[in-house]
Design a protein that fits this description.
There is one protein chain. The protein has one domain. The protein is an alpha+beta fold. A four-stranded antiparallel β-sheet has the order 3-1-2-4. The longest helix is centred in the N-terminal third of the chain and has 22 residues. The model has no long low-confidence stretch (mean pLDDT 77). Helix content is 53%, strand content 20%. The chain has five helices and four strands.
């Protein structure tokens, strides 16, 4: 009897400690999740910035254009990187991906901010070319 109670309490505490990371927002500060795109390099950069000033500095330094941004935390960024790796999306550096419709489709499905301009333009171009052939 004591053994069953101990196992039940241990399992309950173990599960709570494992998932407290997701339920508690104390560990992670809020910031900005963003997506950059470079037509020249055909790359997408996704990332996390602690505030808008840091994001503006990145925009000034890079050859990338900002597609979209939203509020989030570093955990969201880490989870999207891990999920894209599991989906076999090619990761170049820490947060650079090769541009493809597959990559954008996964990002959009996972709720990452990608904007509508580049995604829709490429889809429309693809549909138009398929209609001509």
């Amino acid at each position: 009897m004591f053994n069953n109670i101990f196992q039940t309490e241990f399992a309950k505490n173990y599960v709570n400690s494992k998932f407290s990371l997701f339920s508690s927002g104390k560990h992670y500060s809020k910031g900005v999740l963003y997506t950059f795109y470079s037509d020249k390099l055909n790359l997408i950069e996704i990332g996390f910035a602690k505030n808008n000033k840091i994001l503006e500095d990145k925009i000034k330094r890079k050859e990338f254009i900002l597609l979209d941004k939203k509020n989030g935390n570093p955990l969201d960024f880490l989870l999207i990187i891990k999920t894209l790796k599991l989906l076999n999306v090619k990761l170049f550096n820490r947060n650079y991906f090769n541009y493809s419709n597959k990559t954008l489709r996964h990002l959009k499905t996972l709720g990452w901010p990608i904007g509508n301009s580049i995604y829709k333009r490429r889809i429309i171009r693809k549909k138009f070319s398929c209609a001509l052939t």
